[in-house]
C-alpha cells in the first residue's frame, strides 16, 4: 500500500534565528496510559480542517478542530532537551503565533508531526543514527531505512529492539508540541508494514509502536489520534487513542477496518484525495464533483465519519461530506 501524507516543503538553509530562545525543561517519559481527564476526546461528526502545508488561511473556518503542522507553528526559537542525545533548536515557523490565534478563535489545535519516519529537513535530523536509505543494511548501524516515497523522508526502524536508539528524539517533539500549546498531536508514518521499508517490520512491533506513541502523548497531556495503520486497528488501539485519522479508506475499501473506533464512540477524521479518484473519472479532479458523486459521502455520513475531500497535499482547499 502506498503511504499517504503531505510533502512539506524543505526548510530553507540558513534560517535566521531570533536572538533569544525558549528553553524547555525535561518532561518525564511516563509509562502506560496516564491520560488526563482534560485530554480532548472528540465524538463522531466533529468538524475539522486539515491544513498542514503553507500559511494557514485566515479568517478561520467555522469548525471545531484545526490540524496544522508542528514545525511551521513554532512561535519563536525554542531549545528542546532530548535526554541522552543533547538538545534541538527549533526555529520560529512560517505560521508563528497561529496556535494562540486559533485558541483565541475557540479552536482545538492538533499538531502534525512524524513519529515513524526521518526527514532530512527537520531540525533534529542529525540526532538519528545512520544514513538515509538503509545503505548498510545493518540494524546495529542504521535506524533510517528506505524512502517512504516522499522527498527526503525515510522510514524509521520501529522494531521494538531499536526504540532506544531514536525514540527519545521523537518524544521530544511531543514536548515541543505541549510547550507551544497544541491540544493534541497527529503522529504520522507509523505503518511501514507492507511498504518495503528495508527490514521486515513485524506487525506485532508496529502495533506496539502505535501503543507506545499513544502512551507518550498522553504522558504529556496531549490528545492523540491513530493515523492510518488499518492492519493493526483493533479494540486495543481504539482504546489507546482518542480518535482516528484515516486517508482514503473508501478508495482502498478499508473502512470496515476502522469499526473499532466507531464502536468505541470515537471520532474518525477521514480524507479522500482527488489525485487517486481522478484515475476512475477525470471529473473527480474537482473536489466538489467528487464529493457530490455518490462514491462515498453517503456511506461516510452513515458511519459518522468527519470526511473531507481534498487535494493530496492537505492545504486550505476542501469539501465536506
From TrEMBL:
Q: Which UniProt keywords apply?
A: Signal
Signal peptide coordinates? 1-31
Q: Which residues cross the membrane?
A: none
**Pfam family for this entry, one:** Glyco_hydro_114
Top-rank lineage group of the source organism = Bacteria
Matching entries from SUPFAM superfamilies are given as: (Trans)glycosidases
Sorted alphabetically, which InterPro entries does this protein's record hold? Aldolase_TIM, GH, GH114_TIM-barrel
Residues in coiled coil: none
> In this protein, which residues make up the domain named Glycoside-hydrolase family GH114 TIM-barrel?
47-311
Name of the protein this chain belongs to: Endo alpha-1,4 polygalactosaminidase
Amino acid at each position: 500500500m502506498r503511504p499517504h501524507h503531505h510533502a512539506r516543503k524543505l526548510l530553507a538553509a540558513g534560517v535566521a534565528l531570533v536572538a533569544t530562545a525558549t528553553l524547555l525543561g525535561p518532561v518525564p517519559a511516563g509509562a502506560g496510559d496516564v491520560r488526563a481527564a482534560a485530554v480532548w476526546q472528540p465524538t463522531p461528526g466533529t468538524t475539522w480542517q486539515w491544513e498542514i502545508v503553507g500559511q494557514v488561511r485566515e479568517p478561520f473556518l467555522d469548525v471545531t478542530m484545526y490540524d496544522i503542522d508542528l514545525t511551521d507553528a513554532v512561535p519563536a526559537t525554542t531549545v528542546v532537551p532530548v535526554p541522552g542525545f543533547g538538545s534541538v533548536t527549533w526555529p520560529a515557523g512560517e505560521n508563528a503565533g497561529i496556535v494562540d490565534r486559533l485558541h483565541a478563535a475557540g479552536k482545538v489545535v492538533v499538531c502534525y508531526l512524524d513519529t515513524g519516519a526521518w526527514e532530512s529537513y527537520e531540525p533534529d535530523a542529525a540526532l538519528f543514527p545512520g544514513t538515509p536509505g538503509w545503505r548498510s543494511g545493518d540494524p546495529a548501524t542504521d535506524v533510517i531505512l528506505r524512502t517512504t516515497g516522499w522527498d527526503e523522508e525515510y522510514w524509521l526502524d520501529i522494531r521494538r529492539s531499536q526504540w532506544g536508539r531514536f525514540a527519545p528524539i521523537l518524544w521530544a517533539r511531543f514536548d515541543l508540541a505541549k510547550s507551544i500549546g497544541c491540544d493534541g498531536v497527529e503522529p504520522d508514518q507509523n505503518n511501514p508494514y507492507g511498504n518495503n521499508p528495508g527490514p521486515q517490520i513485524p506487525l506485532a512491533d508496529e502495533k506496539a509502536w502505535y501503543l507506545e506513541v499513544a502512551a507518550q502523548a498522553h504522558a504529556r497531556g496531549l490528545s492523540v489520534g491513530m493515523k492510518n495503520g488499518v492492519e493493526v486497528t483493533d479494540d486495543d488501539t481504539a482504546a489507546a487513542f482518542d480518535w482516528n485519522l484515516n486517508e482514503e479508506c473508501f478508495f482502498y475499501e478499508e473502512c470496515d477496518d476502522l469499526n473499532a473506533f466507531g464502536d468505541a464512540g470515537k471520532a474518525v477524521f477521514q480524507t479522500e484525495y482527488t489525485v487517486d479518484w481522478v484515475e476512475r473519472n477525470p471529473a473527480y479532479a474537482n473536489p466538489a464533483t467528487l464529493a457530490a458523486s455518490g462514491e462515498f459521502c453517503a456511506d461516510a455520513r452513515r458511519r459518522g465519519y468527519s470526511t473531507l475531500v481534498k487535494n493530496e497535499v492537505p492545504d486550505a482547499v476542501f469539501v465536506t461530506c
